[in-house]
Design a protein that fits this description.
With 380 residues, this protein is α/β, with parallel strands linked by helices. The chain has two domains: 195 residues, Rossmann fold; 173 residues, Rossmann fold, CATH 3.40.50. The protein contains twelve helices and 16 strands. The strands form four sheets. It has a seven-stranded mixed beta sheet with strand order 12-11-10-13-14-15-16, with helices on both faces. Helix 2 crosses helix 10. It is globular and about 60 Å long. The N and C termini lie far apart (54 Å).
Length: 380
């Protein structure tokens, strides 16, 4: 590491699971701090070792003494592999969470502070207890809260922010990428498609997230409607780890003729709920349908999305680079990946310099101004 960068007291521990995102964050931070040398980097080199018995460890190759350390990991990256008992395994969230803890332990209390950036929150969808089961997300946060030196945990679009009640000594920040996604949407779509908008929550849990997007785009130059779907599940059966949906009912204004619809949620998992929403909305003479999600997991692949797109049932998906997406998926013309690395870099900069995060986490002026400019120009 360059001596001048080393004296800045900022260090990044970028795990292989978040390599691409971490390197982009590093580039933005170097620019913010005015470092321009070819060898300048805030990234602390590490070795990530998996043993053939299934254990793992992290070795830090440079001192972190006195540094504000920011750990960047993506627990959703299943592309990494390791060998165990002569079998090749793909990394799971459990593997990568243990790796994160190993990296924290390797600091040996030498770092001035430890800050964890985990866009996908470990077991974030297991945020409440419905049966004889573990509150695994809250338990993991509580375990991290007990580790001396951890200052903050930064996540993105948490499924339920109520899990932060498990923290007593650690700052919890929940970053919504809505500004970055909306700026990309506004740039890509023609003005005519932005004049009549309807924002849809695919279930009751997504209503708050839908409102963030709809309120941001609610200006005098366009018409905004909101709607949602209500799921009825068969609680007596479990299929693939969840209660199957037996009904998906639309709640909202039924007259959506000529509107551009945005289905907003935190993630696409298998995609089943999205297909139900798309089919129902297409019965209402919708002009175009787009999906906005922070995380596009595609746990069942993309074949059905490709089929729906070819049949012109939807027009595109807007997501982020905050979690792993296979390169072959990114090549699809209907999948738009928005780069959030600059926002992560700004969060790191503000935390290290004790600057408030309100403008980053709450301000909606940038997409609003972009939308006003686009619609105003189209009316001249």
């Amino acid at each position: 590491m360059n001596k001048r960068v080393n004296e800045s007291k900022l260090g990044l521990m970028v795990f292989s699971s978040a390599k691409d995102l971490g390197e982009k964050v590093n580039e933005h931070l170097l620019e913010m701090y005015g470092f321009t040398g070819d060898d300048d980097s805030f990234i602390i080199p590490i070795k990530e070792i998996f043993f053939e018995d299934g254990h793992s460890k992290v070795v830090i190759e440079e001192t972190v003494r006195g540094k504000d350390m920011f750990f960047i990991t993506d627990i959703g990256n299943y592309s990494l592999t390791y060998k165990m008992h002569n079998f090749w395994n793909h990394t799971s969230p459990n593997d990568l969470m243990e790796q994160l803890k190993s990296g924290i332990g390797a600091c040996c209390c030498h770092a001035r502070s430890i800050n964890i950036i985990t866009p996908l929150l470990f077991n974030g969808r297991q945020h409440r207890r419905n049966a004889r089961e573990d509150l695994s997300c809250a338990r993991t946060l509580h375990e991290l809260d007990q580790i001396k030196g951890i200052k903050s945990i930064i996540t993105c679009d948490a499924h339920d922010t109520g899990v932060q009640q498990a923290l007593f000594n650690t700052e919890f920040q929940n970053y919504f990428p809505s500004n970055t996604i909306l700026k990309s949407v506004i740039k890509d779509l023609p003005a005519e498609d932005l004049k009549k908008l309807v924002y849809i929550a695919p279930d009751n849990g997504a209503n708050g997230r839908r409102n963030i997007y709809s309120n941001t785009c609610n200006i005098d130059l366009n018409e905004i409607k909101v709607g949602s779907f209500s799921k009825q599940r068969d609680i007596n059966r479990v299929v693939d780890g969840k209660n199957p949906i037996i009904a998906h009912d639309y709640i909202g204004d039924k007259d959506l003729d000529g509107y551009t619809a945005f289905i907003v949620d935190d993630m696409i998992s298998s995609g089943g709920s999205m297909f139900d929403c798309i089919d129902e909305l297409n019965k209402r003479n919708i002009k175009k349908i787009y999906i906005i999600v922070t995380f596009a997991l595609f746990t069942n692949g993309i074949d059905k999305f490709v089929e729906y797109y070819k049949d012109k049932k939807f027009s595109g998906i807007y997501t982020t680079n905050l979690s792993y997406i296979p390169n072959e998926f990114k090549e699809c013309e209907w999948l738009h990946t928005c780069d959030c690395s600059k926002d992560i870099a700004r969060i790191i900069y503000n935390i290290q310099n004790d600057i408030g995060l309100e403008d980053l986490l709450q301000s909606k002026t940038e997409p609003q101004q972009a939308l006003i400019l686009k619609l105003s120009s189209s009316t001249k």
